[in-house]
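Aim 2, interim progress. The first record below pairs a target sequence with its C-alpha cells.
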Amino acid sequence: MKKPNIILLMCDQLRGDCLSFADHPDVKTPYLDTLAADGAFFENGYSACPSCIPARAALLTGRSQTKHGRVGYQDGIDWNYEHYLAEELTKNGYYTQCVGKMHVHPPRLLCGFQGMRLHDGYIGHYRKANTPYWMHQNVSDDYMRFLKDHLGHDADVNASGVENNSWVTHPWIYEERYHPTNWVVDESIRFLETRDRTKPFFLTASFVRPHPPFDAPQSYYDLYKDKQLREPAHGDWVDPSLTEQYGRVLDSVHGCRDDEMRHQAMAGYYACITHIDHQIGRLITALENDETYHDTIIVFTADHGEMLFDNNCFRKVLPYEGSTHIPMIVHVGKNIKKVTPFRSDSVVELRDIMPTLLEFAGIDIPDTVDGISMAPEIIGEKPHQREYLHGEHSGGVQSNHYIVTSHDKYIWFSQTGREQYFNLDQDPREEHDLIHEQAYQDRIHTLRSHLIEELKDREEGYTDGRQLLKGTPKATLDWLKNTI
C-alpha cells in the first residue's frame, strides 16, 4: 500500500482558541479554517508541559513529561532519546525534513530527520559571548545566515528592538519576504520541489511566531490595531495588585498595566497568527500544484499557548487555558482515507501525534510511546481513549500541576499548596474559581485523587500516596540528567 505523505505544521505559543474556526471573535485564519472544516478538529488539544522544550520533547518522542524527564524549561540539557518520530519514519522509507524551530540541545541535533533548515528564534542561551562557536545562533541557525546574506552583516532579526518574551509590539522593519515566517514556507516549498520523489515525505514546518516578538508585517498589524478587540478574561479570583506592582516590566508574567500597550500587544499577536495562516496558504497551494495535496496528511498544532492578559497573566507555563490549550487539526487527504469532517471533544495532547502518524503510515508504534493514537477516532472507528490529562510545569512559586478533562480542571500549585477548580463547560475562560463550592467537593476529590496517583512515584516527593505535599520543583528530572 502506498504510504501517505505527512506535513506537520507547528507554531510556537499559539492559543487553542485563536482560530476563527474555534469561534474567536477577532482572529481571522481562513486557510486553517479550511483545513479544519474538511478534517478532524480536536477542540480539547493540550500541552501537558507548556513551554518550548518539554512540549517539543513530547511531540518528537511521543512520551509524557514524566517519561521524557523535562517538566519545566531548562536550556543546555542534552537530548538522548530512542525512537523519535522522524527516526521511525526515516527507518521505514520516508524522506524527512525539518524547517524552522527545533529547540533541542545541541542545537543541530537531527532527532531522526535526514535534513534540517534551522531557525530557533532568538534564544538567549545560544546568543551569549561565551557560547561555543558552533552552537552560537549566528553560526548554527540557517535563517540568521540567510538574513545576513541578503541584508548585510549587521542585519539582526531583533533590529526593531522588541524583546522575545515581551508584550512590546513593533511591525517588521524589513521587506516581508525576509520575515522568518515567510522563510519557513519558502524553504518548505523548496523541499517539496527538490525532494526524492521515489519516497513518501515527512516535512515539519515549524514557525517561531506567534511567540514574541510581535513583529508581523505592517499590513497584518493594520488589520487589528484599530479594531475593538475582545477584552481579556478577568476572574473573580484575580489579585490585581500584582499587575499594579509588576505590570511595567515588559515581560512580566503578571501582564501589562498600560491599556494602550496591552491593546497593541493583542493586535500584534493576532497579526502574527493571520500572517502565519496566509503563509500556510502558500504551502497548501504548492501541494495542490504538486498534485500531492490529496495524498498528504496535514497536522496543525502548537507547543503551548499564550495567556495574553487573561486573568492578568502573560506568557505561558501556567495551568490555565490560555497557556495549556492548543489547536489540533488533522486533515487526511482523500486519496489516503475517506474521513467525514467532525469536531471532537476528546482530550488530546502533543504526545498523541507520533502514534497517530505512525498508525496512518502503517508503522509499528515503539513501546516507549505514551501517547494514544487519534487515528481510530479520525477514521470513525472509536473515540479517543483518555479520561483525563495530567499536566504540569516547574519553575519557582508558579510550579503547578493540573488535571483536565473535556469538562473541567483541577489545579494544584506545588510550592504554595493553592488549589483551584474550574467548570470549563460553564466557564471556559476560567473566571470563577469553584474550589470552595460545596456542590463540587466530590468532583474535586476525584480529580485530586487522580493527581496523587500520577505523582506517587515522582522523585520530587509531591505525595505520600494519600495527600499532596509541597516538594522541590525541578525543570529536568534527575534520572534524565544521570543518563546523559
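The second target in this work package is listed in the same format:
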Amino acid sequence: MLTWGDVRRWDPAAIGAVADALNDGCTRIIAVNDDVESMARLPGWLGEAATAASTRGESLTSSLEQLVAEASAVRRGAHEVQIALDRVVAFVRETDELASRNGLIVGSGGEITSSGGPSEPRVMAELADRVEQILRRATDVDADFAAIMQRALRGEITEQGAGTLAQAADAGAAQSGLSIIRPPENGSPGDNKAWWDSLSDTAKVALLRGNPGLIGNLDGIPATDRDAANRAVLASEIARLRGDPKVKGLEAIARRLDQPEPRAFLLGLDTSGDGKAIVSAGNPDTAMNVATYVPGTGSELAKIGGDLNRSDKMWAVATTAGSPSTAVITWLGYDAPNGLTDAASEKYADGGRAALTQFQEGLRETHQGTPSHNTVMGHSYGTTVVGHAARDGGLAADELVFVASPGVGAHDVSELHLDGVDQGDVGEHVHATVAEHDMINLANLEVAGYDLVLGQDPTDADFGGQVFTSAPGTDGFGGYSQEAHSEYWEDNNPSLNNLGQIIAGKPTT
C-alpha cells in the first residue's frame, strides 16, 4: 500500500532515464542486427556452412525482434508513466504547500496535524480529501507500469510477424498502452466526466499525448486536462496554418497562455471556418466566481485578442470588487454573424445556444468543492445567443448579463431560466446596460408598437431585469456612434466596474 511518504519521494526523472536508456538500447540492437544480416548473407557464399549461418542469423533476428518489441513496450510505458508521475508529484507539492500556508503538516502516513497554530476544519477536510485522491491516482499509476512490466517479463508482448526490427519496435510500443475505451458518442458533460474519471492517470496521459484533439473540446473534462490537450493542438495549428489570417488569433492565444497572472486555460479550439476558441483567465474548476463572456457580431478567431483583453479586465475588476478567486472565460464557441445584415437573423443564436448550454453544464460537472457563482454575459449579438439558451431549456448559471443587446429572444425575464435561481426570483439575477450613444439603440426602436426581429430591449423597464450604469459613450451622427458600442470595457467606464461587481456577486450601480 503506497503512503504519502512514498509518493513524496517519487522521482519522475528516474523513470525518464529508464525510457531513454531503453531507447538507446533498441537503437544499438537494430544496428547489431544489420551486422548479423550482412554476415549471414555474404554474396556468393554457398554450401552447408552458408545454410547454417543463414539459419542461425534468422534465429538471432527473430530473438532480437522479440527483445526489441518488449523493450519498446517498456520504453513507451515508462515515458507515459513519467508524465503521469509528473502530474502526481505536482499535486503532492501543491497539497503540501496548501497545508503549509494554513499552519498544517501532512505526515508521511497521510495524517494531517497542526504545526502549532490554530487549524481550520474546512482546510483540514480539503487536505484529507486531496491526500486520498492523490494516493488513489498514485496507486493506479504504479499498477499500470507494473502491468506493462509483467506483460514484458511473461513474453506476452510480441513482434506480431514484423518484417524488420523497426517494425517490431513499433508493434511493441503499440502493445504497451492500456486498453482505453473511447468517450461516449454524443455524451452529455456528465457522461464525459464519468468516462474520464474511470481512466487511470497513465491512460489519461496516453490519450492527451496520442489524441489531444479528441479531449480538448469535450465538455465535462477538467480544465487542466482540456488545456493540456489544446495547447498541443494550438502549437501544431500555428505551424500548419502559416499565412492564414486565423494565425493572428492563434498567436494572440499563445501569448496569453504565456502570461503568468492570472494563468490562462485553453478550453476549446477549432480552426475550421472562421474558427472557434474558448480561453479562461483563471481556473474555472477551482474559482469561486466564474463568468462566461460571449462576444457578438464580427467575432472570429483571427480577432480574439481584443476579447481576451476584455476578459482580463473583468477578472481584474472582479478581484478588486472582492472576489476571492475568479475565472473569466472568453467563449467564442459559436459561428457569429459577420455583419449587420447577418445580425438581423436569429439563426446564429439558434446555432450557438446548444453549445453554450452544454459548456455551462460542463462547468458545473468539473467544479471542485462548493458550487461556484456562475455568470453568463453577452455583448451585442452575444446577448442574443445567451438569451436563446436561457429561454430554450435554461442555463447552468446564477446571473445573466446583457451588454448593448439588440434583443434576447424574450419579451420579459419570466421567459428566461437559470438553474441556480428560483423562477420567481429570475428578475433579480438578469442585468442589462446600454450606452446612451450606442448605435445598437437604433435596432431596439419599435415599429408601430412591435419589436424588431430579435426581441425586447432588456434595458426596458417592462422587461423586468436590473439595469446598471454605463457611460454615455462617444457621440456621433444623430446622437449614435459605432465607437460607443465597444467602449463598455474602457477603464473609466462605470460599466466595467459594474461587470466586476456582478461577477463577484455584489450589487451594481
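The longest strand covers residues 264-270. This observation will shape the mutagenesis plan for the next reporting period.
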